[in-house]
């Protein structure tokens, strides 16, 4: 991999045209991941009708992707460090392209589920590779911060745009939800081959692949995500047994890593308080964010009778963070530091969820608007700085692992949030009347609120009393936007 200086373009730290090209490619990939998930969300009713899938089987179209993504993320991050970030990024981008296209040809539900699982695995290898290319190719400090904030803004933009594009494509034929990403993936692949510099093969002398560690942690994450995803649909005993087995495998993983000469994840990395706080806060933030969106969609479509496209346009305002992340957030980080900006973003998320708690059966869109716009602002303040904090100060040879840890936290948090709000909603809904549905929604909305408040408490431990400073503050972040706006979760 080229050094940071190779992409800086000058001794002043200004980013060269080549650097912007590399960032454009990596932003395109995370945009692709966001738009792919969002488009599928709004196409699920059409898929169920065409493939005659039950509700339980339809849920697996989403869960299979989450399992593949969350389960293999740590292995993907380590693979990027061991086998080359560019090599892993390009290879798994090809896999993503192939299986996204295969999903569009599915004639049976199980075919679509398998395609989504492999697509999730591809994203699990591709995403940490792309993030670590940024963190190792851009000099730590203002340049890297700007790149990461543009990158995070892209992820949100992809999800927001995907909601609308998915509704439009599904209105024509749901299969275009899978075919459209193929075209975008191909363009990104060509640009990646041309623009991302080739790097020497990593020196793996004395660093064997920790197969036992990889199998144990992947199995543990799969079982935990699986147990959380199915919590609302399975018995308490089954859920407890599944999660318990996952925790046992985690203990096995820790034991293996303690003894391994070349561990998959060096346990000493968790001595970084900022990394641990970023991952915990990121997990809870994702839980609240995805849980809230799930309840908001149910409210708008089940109770209010809004169409898929109306719902998509209603929620697109959350995507304002695609604009704010590369413009407003760098200024705030430069002034207050990452820790304080994250803390403010989490408090705003809690405010957003609290404002939505008293939803009524006849709320106008303008009554909902404050919650939605504040949530978009909260995402712009929290997501990018969390990404910076989780990778800041980590050695270059462990950047892939650090990225894998963060995105594992985001994915597990999303699964946790979705299953938790679904379980509370089901338990609190007594009947099918509008009043009963509202009771269920209001009860479920407490989950995102609590998640955001706990995340804020965790992030508060990283605050410093020194004015204008914050954890992960590595200097002023340039406030000027790039000359050309780069079309760039969690995440999301």
CATH architectural category of the largest domain:
Up-down Bundle
The CATH homologous superfamily of the largest domain corresponds to MFS general substrate transporter like domains
Compute the number of helices.
17
Q: Compute the CA-based radius of gyration.
A: 21 Å
The sequence of SSEs as H and E is HHHHHHHHHHHHHHHHH
Helical content stands at: over 70%
Largest sheet: none
| Mass-distribution shape | globular
Number of domains: 2
* Whole-number mean pLDDT: 81
The span between the termini is 26 Å
User: Would you count the extended β strands for me?
Assistant: 0
Regarding CATH, which class of the largest domain? Mainly Alpha
Q: Unreliable segments (pLDDT under 50, ≥5 consecutive)?
A: 1-6, 465-469, 473-492
**What name does the CATH topology of the largest domain carry?**
Growth Hormone, Chain: A
Strand content: under 5%
Structural class: mainly alpha
